[in-house]
Amino acid sequence: MGCWFLFMLPLAMANLEPFALPPGFEGTWQGVPYASVVGPWSENFTFSITRIPQGDYLFQANLPFDASPEFRQYWSWQRSYLRVSGEDRGRLLHCPGPRDPKRLRVAMMQAHAVGPREVTFCLRKWPGYIDSEHPFPFKTLGCYTAGPEEGCGCFNWTLRVDESGTTLDYQVSMAGSPLRQHSKHVWATLKRVPYVATVDLHFPGPGGHFDCDYTHRDEHQTPLASCPFALYYRPPAESSTVARSTFEHCYNLDAKVGLVLEWDLDEKASLLHVQISALAEAADYVSVGFRPLGGSSSGEARRAGTGREQRFGMRGADIVLGHSASSADSAGVERYYASAYSGAPGPDESLEIWNASVERRGGRIALEFRRPLVSGYLFAKHGINASILSDLSDMMWAVGRWDEANQVPSYHGALRGWREVNWTDPEFDSRPLLSLRPYRCGMVLYP
């Protein structure tokens, strides 16, 4: 126990020898994330750690989100630069792409503790950091100073290798409501694969020049987007693909649970007709949440309990849920509002819906309803005339088991996801969380 404590001393208390990751971290790792912000995956995530000749480290990852190599341009990627010495010792500059070329820093982390087989990085603010531009609930949850180390309550990234050096736990967590566990942003168990990722780029300089470069270096995907990792192409499982839909828009948002989102939009009548469905073997209920100001950094959004600060939590969402337990004779549609970042939402009828129904058919459970473009808690309680067609709007979904005895939904666990959806033109953009083109129904998907 005493030796472990010595290994876990914060870096600020250690001497200033060059920072080093635990032995066995370097290499390429691969596995299927069982929890992520967009939902559980069904396809491989590839991550690599490479030490460059100067001694610093480069982390690389590609995030296909279960889209085939045909849609590689819609994949996201991540590149992180870890400095081992100087004023940036132990700092990790995180550059997720693609991003605005004018942005120099998207996220920075600091290594706080290093064990014999693990390391944890936590969020770090830099001079000029503006809280409202980042999706962390600094004000509402006070997460930045909530833990023993600064930043760990808002965002922490733990990497842990096993004794054999063949398995790596990859755990990125966001904030969580008080007394609740942190939100699993990306959690995966990765296995070492026999491949050494190449490094062919200029490492960022120290201090004020330790920045992302979205005009050159960081505008391109990592080598992990190419062979041998981009060829895990398999025919789709019939149950996970809706080849025909009566709706104008139809997209497969998660192959693991067969989550399909379909809708018709009538802008003249200011109406959305939506259906969300999932595999019946995975769920007794299926739900969808709407946040018209989910990406807003305004004071109005903050005061109303929504906005960018809540982005990776549930707070501010009007939720419609349809349940139909396989052993029950009854089915129903419920409405809720999420007033907390995490935890169960409460019953609320602020969101108007019409012609709502839930049914089981063809091995699926489907919830269908109509709603106005402007409605919900913000409008009813705060008089905010915000439409879900706003470019600040986002949505979320969850599936799970219905608790028949208590007439409430059981906790969905990792069977949930978040996305930005352009309800008017869902394929207008090539960025991975904005364009739904790779997930269009009837296209070839991973099972």
Shape: globular
Low-confidence stretches: 1-14
Main sheet makeup: 10 strands, antiparallel, barrel
Radius of gyration: 22 Å
The percent range for strand residues is: 25-35%
The CATH architecture name of the largest domain reads: Beta Barrel
The tally of structural domains comes to: 2
> Mean of the pLDDT scores?
88
Helix content: under 10%
Write down the secondary-structure element order: HEEEEEEEEHEEEEEEEHEEEEEHEEEE
**CATH class identity of the largest domain:** Mainly Beta
Q: Give the neighbour order of strands across the main sheet.
A: 1-3-4-5-6-7-8-9-10-11
- Helical/strand content category: mainly beta
Number of DSSP strands?
24
Q: What distance separates the N and C termini?
A: 45 Å
CATH fold descriptor of the largest domain: Lipocalin
Quickly count the helices: 4
CATH superfamily of the largest domain: Calycin beta-barrel core domain
